[in-house]
């Protein structure tokens, strides 16, 4: 069959090339339209309770992850020049496109008693240039309002917060970069003018910084990978045309991968941004193995057409099954419920298969028009250094098989122990270097304000106007829960309608801070008129007339059924988060009768970390499915359970070693590291298939029997395996120079796995083949 395919490819190479180039031009146009994705909640399936709870929260109260915080630490804020510039900073930020609201000390409001029955809001600091005396007077009023303590300032640390609320549509588009830059530019200008260190944090900034930084790094590393691969290919093949041919294959593959993303309506996420490097990882070996077989056949026959036919016939089935198994390894992600994993699996699976068709069309067609290989182009086949290595491998395989098995067993035992030390843990700023400004600034906010990552708690009274029933007892329970949360070191002071009512009570008693407290039965008379007006969503007029209603709208829904508690927390990580949430849930269960209340914990930070956990679990399950499906393909290909065993063991060993090293070195399982196992499996199985297919194709055609066939395969396939491994290892080593922990781990862990896969397939696998039964079927269809 492959003989007919080979002749067809060469006979219709012009037509096939024209189709390939036309399709690539179309894909190139589609690739130019693909955009970045800035959504972080899509890792969780839409039917997941956490996802549904967060969507319900956003529908009622709006998005909680759109605030960018600016922090400063100084004892000069209330100096005339500094404070007036701080006022101007707030006004300037309001003019930045995409900014909806600015929360700061200059914009703080006071709740004052207008007469015996009415309360109203008034600005504490007039929006004008203030004298020092005016600032001092207003400052005294401001610090007499406990409502703002821990929210806009930390009096002990002399630290101050300014919050910038960004439009949610801007946040989910590329325009967020311009908005965030406008905010930080204004903040930096203020800091420079007064020699103050400005700190920034918040999910908008963290998301924007990580997305843009990783995207930039991926571009530079792809460029570096291309340059390094080009250098190594020229060094091996001593041919610029051969190098350009190989790079053309992977370049077309990358263009197709981006084109497929746009055709399917996908955007570039932090996960599927890894697909272009994967295309290069799979594509370069395709080229090396095709070229190696072409050069070997040409050296034996001296006839280019015969060599091309032999290349397609022998390498076609090998490359096809290598790409099929690699595609399966990633396509299984499409079986998960996570949208991000589905997209990654679909695009990776399709394009890895497309690489086979690109390779088998482009490589033979271009080679047929190039001049015959010269002696210098095939000299690498007799490289003395490589030949000596392969000779040494032959000796080990024949004479030291027991030692090979023993050393492998010891290493595996050590690494299996290491796997029990593995832990799954992710952080919001997980992969940022410790010296990154975003990381250091987040620690500043955690130290001075206990964190800014939002946790949202929804107290559902289970019926419309449920808040009116047992009004004060409900507030007392919310206050008790808030006190419990505030007592934990991971949380800042929570905000809720209760804090607003404490503010209201203080105002009613003429602003005395001693009266800032939870209303009691004696306060009902003045409280009820305000409580009745809290149904703000049903009446625009009410919202316009009642400032209290407008502020309360962010804490109570329009049906007076649900109440919101907002608590900012530190970046505690996905490992500690469930324990913390469980303790809060237990406390709420002890306070709220489950027959009358339902308490739900949600928020964008909770959803983000839950998404990381879901991705890790999805990747684990996908690797298991990949092994099962790949095993089925291997069984179909080799028609032998013994060969199947020989094919799977060398692929399990590198994964166990990598997992063990991760455990011993303290590298946690997270989305950026667990993907290493999928990449490693795809590469390792590629090496195994190429070795075993060549072994079975030669088995029975040589007089020396199985042992001689194994030795021959080491020498013929070993050269290609070593060349390919060197190119791939060198390429992944580039990622070790990344500033991001995940990229660094991807680099050195994948390189380690490649080294182990090369050794197991050139040392352990031959020893295993010789040690097994002599009767192995030799026919491959």
Keywords, please?
781 residues; single chain; Multidrug efflux transporter AcrB transmembrane fold; Alpha-Beta Plaits; three-stranded antiparallel β-sheet; alpha+beta; five-stranded antiparallel β-sheet; 7% strand; 64% helix
Secondary structure layout:
Layout: H1 2-11, H2 13-31, H3 49-61, E1 67-73, H4 80-94, E2 99-103, E3 109-113, E4 119-123, H5 132-143, E5 153-154, E6 159-166, H6 168-171, H7 176-193, E7 199-201, H8 203-237, H9 240-263, H10 275-301, H11 304-331, H12 339-369, H13 375-378, H14 384-399, H15 401-419, H16 437-449, E8 453-460, H17 471-487, H18 497-508, H19 524-532, H20 540-545, H21 547-552, E9 562-569, H22 577-591, E10 598-602, H23 604-638, H24 641-665, H25 671-698, H26 705-733, H27 741-771
Antiparallel strand pairs: 1-6, 1-7, 2-6, 3-4, 5-6, 8-9, 8-10
Give a description of the structure.
The chain is α+β, with helices and mostly antiparallel strands. It has four domains: about 1-40 and about 215-380, Multidrug efflux transporter AcrB transmembrane domain (Multidrug efflux transporter AcrB transmembrane fold); about 65-200, Alpha-Beta Plaits, CATH 3.30.70; about 385-420 and about 640-780, Multidrug efflux transporter AcrB transmembrane fold, CATH 1.20.1640.10; about 445-600, no CATH class. Helices cover about 65% and strands about 5% of the residues. The chain is built from 27 helices and ten strands. The strands form three sheets. Strands 1, 2, 5, 6 and 7 form a five-stranded antiparallel beta sheet that branches. Strands 9-8-10 form a three-stranded antiparallel beta sheet, sandwiched between helices. A hairpin with a 4-residue loop joins β5 and β6. α10 packs antiparallel against α11 (about 305-330). It is elongated and about 105 Å long. It starts with a helix and ends in a 10-residue tail after the last helix.
């Amino acid at each position: 069959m492959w003989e007919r395919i080979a002749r067809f490819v060469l006979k219709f190479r012009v037509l096939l090339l024209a189709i390939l180039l036309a399709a690539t031009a179309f894909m190139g146009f589609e690739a130019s339209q693909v955009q970045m994705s800035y959504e972080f909640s899509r890792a969780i399936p839409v039917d997941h309770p956490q996802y549904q709870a967060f969507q319900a929260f956003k529908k009622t109260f709006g998005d909680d992850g759109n605030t960018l915080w600016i922090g400063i630490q100084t004892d000069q804020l209330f100096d005339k020049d500094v404070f007036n510039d701080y006022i101007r900073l707030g006004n300037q930020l309001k003019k930045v496109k995409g900014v909806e609201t600015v929360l700061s000390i200059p914009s703080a409001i006071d709740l004052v008693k207008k007469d015996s029955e009415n309360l109203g809001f008034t600005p504490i600091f007039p929006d004008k240039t203030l004298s020092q005396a005016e600032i001092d007077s207003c400052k005294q009023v401001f610090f007499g309002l406990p409502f703002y303590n821990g929210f806009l300032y930390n009096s002990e640390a002399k630290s101050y917060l300014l919050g910038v609320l960004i439009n949610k549509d801007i946040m989910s588009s590329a325009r967020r970069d311009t908005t965030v830059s406008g905010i930080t530019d204004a903040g930096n200008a203020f800091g420079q003018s007064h020699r103050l260190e400005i700190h920034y944090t918040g999910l908008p900034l963290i998301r924007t910084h990580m997305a843009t930084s990783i995207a930039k790094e991926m571009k530079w590393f792809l460029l570096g990978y291309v340059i390094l691969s080009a250098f190594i290919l020229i060094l091996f093949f001593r041919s610029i045309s051969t190098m350009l041919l190989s790079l053309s294959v992977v370049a077309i593959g990358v263009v197709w991968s981006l084109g497929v993303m746009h055709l399917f309506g996908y955007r570039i996420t932090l996960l599927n941004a890894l697909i272009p490097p994967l295309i290069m990882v799979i594509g370069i070996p395709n080229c090396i193995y095709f070229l190696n077989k072409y050069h070997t056949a040409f050296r034996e026959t001296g006839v280019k057409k015969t060599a091309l036919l032999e290349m397609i016939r022998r390498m076609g089935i090998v490359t096809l099954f290598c790409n099929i198994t690699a595609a399966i390894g990633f396509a299984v992600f499409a079986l998960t419920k996570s949208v991000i994993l589905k997209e990654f699996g679909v695009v990776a699976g399709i394009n890895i298969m497309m690489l086979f068709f690109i390779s088998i069309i482009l490589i033979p067609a271009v080679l047929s028009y190039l001049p015959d290989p010269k002696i210098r182009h095939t000299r690498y086949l007799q490289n003395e250094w490589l030949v000596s290595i392969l000779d040494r491998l032959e000796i080990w395989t024949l004479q030291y098989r027991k030692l090979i098995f023993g050393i492998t067993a010891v290493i595996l035992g050590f690494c299996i122990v290491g796997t029990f030390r593995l832990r799954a843990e992710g952080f919001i700023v997980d992969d940022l270097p410790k010296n990154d400004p975003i990381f250091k600034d987040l620690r500043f906010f955690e130290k001075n304000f206990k964190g800014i990552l939002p946790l949202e708690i929804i107290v559902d009274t289970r019926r419309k106007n449920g808040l009116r029933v047992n009004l004060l007892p409900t507030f007392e329970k919310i206050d008790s829960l808030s006190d419990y949360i505030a007592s934990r070191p991971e949380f800042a002071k929570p905000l809720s309608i209760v804090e607003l009512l404490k503010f209201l009570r203080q105002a009613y008693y003429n602003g005395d801070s001693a009266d800032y407290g939870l209303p009691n039965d004696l306060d009902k008379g003045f409280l009820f008129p305000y409580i009745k007006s809290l149904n703000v969503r049903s009446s625009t007029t009410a919202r316009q007339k009642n400032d209290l209603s407008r502020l309360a709208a962010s804490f109570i829904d329009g049906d007076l059924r649900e109440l919101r508690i907002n608590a900012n927390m530190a970046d505690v990580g996905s490992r500690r988060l469930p324990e913390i949430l469980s303790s809060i849930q237990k406390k709420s269960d002890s306070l709220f009768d489950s027959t009358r209340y339902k308490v739900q914990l949600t928020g964008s930070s909770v959803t983000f970390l839950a998404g990381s956990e879901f991705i890790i679990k999805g990747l684990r399950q996908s690797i298991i499915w990949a092994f099962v499906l790949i095993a089925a393909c291997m069984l179909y290909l080799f028609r032998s359970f013994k060969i199947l065993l020989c094919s799977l063991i060398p692929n399990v060993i590198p994964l166990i070693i990598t997992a063990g090293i991760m455990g011993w070195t303290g590298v946690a399982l997270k989305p950026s590291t667990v993907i290493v196992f999928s990449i490693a499996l795809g590469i390792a199985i590629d090496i195994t298939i190429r070795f075993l297919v060549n072994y079975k194709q030669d088995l029975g055609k040589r007089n020396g029997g199985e042992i001689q066939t194994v030795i021959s395969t080491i020498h013929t396939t070993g050269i290609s395996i070593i060349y390919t491994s060197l190119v791939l290892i060198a390429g992944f080593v580039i990622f070790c120079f990344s500033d991001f922990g995940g990229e660094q781990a991807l680099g050195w862990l994948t390189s380690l796995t490649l080294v182990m896969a090369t050794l197991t397939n050139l040392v352990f696998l031959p020893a295993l083949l010789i040690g097994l039964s002599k009767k192995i079927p030799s026919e491959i269809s």
